[in-house]
Amino acid sequence: MRALYALWHGDLWHLAWRFRDQGASVLVSTHRDGELVARVLSRLGFGLVRGSSTRGGSHALREIHRLAREEGGDLAFTIDGPKGPAREPKDGILYAASRTGLPIVPVGVAVDRAWRARSWDGLRIGKPGARVVLALGEDLRIPANVDHRDLLPRYGPQLAAAMAAAEARARERLC
Fold first, then answer.
1. pTM of the model
2. I need a surface site. Which of 92, 95, 109, 131 has the fewest CB within 10 A?
3. Count of domains in the chain?
4. Tens of pLDDT along 72-124?
């Protein structure tokens, strides 16, 4: 495993389609709505790690550790899930990065024409013929010795800023 990719929940579709069948795994919640997402991602060739901050988190973390040790693919996190608020990072990816030593790579997405779902995450789906641009941000490394309670206050603002910078880079490339 090379990196933990950070994305907003509302951008999952574009990233799933772009990186299908490339050996990556995605952290997907065990909630009812996560089951539909898991089925779609599985058909697109992604590995699944099931769990979230509210259900199955410790099992998911063990699986992330196993993937980090034994596999060669990447892992994607929707960092504002499973229930929001949208575009506000949670500490799951920070904790995984601190415990695995893997860098966090922010992913920015820009779409020139898209439908938006009326959901908490505002899921975007590009309209036919839409241009979609993805941009990767600078790696963010989280030290191993940080107490889990301090992760979000110390590194959450950095992660949010890195996500905003990656999205700004994607928007610049879209123009």
1. 0.91
2. 131
3. 1
4. 668 999 999 777 899 999 999 999 999 999 999 999 999 999 999 998 889 99
Q: Domain residues for 91?
A: 4-174
Separation CA 90–CA 155 (nearest Å): 10
Q: Is the pLDDT of residue 1 over 60?
A: no
Structure tokens given for 71: 């596999």
d(CA 126, CA 174): 13
> What DSSP string runs through 75-130?
EEEETTTTT--TT---SHHHHHHHHH-PPEEEEEEEESSEEE-SSTT--EEEPTT-
Residue 50 belongs to what H/E stretch?
strand 47-50
147 pLDDT more than 70? yes
Judged against a pLDDT cut of 70, whether residue 53 lies above it is answered with no
Say how far residue 1 (Cα) sits from the centre of its chain.
15
Structure tokens at 108: 């920015």
Cα 163 to Cα 44: distance, rounded to the nearest angstrom: 25
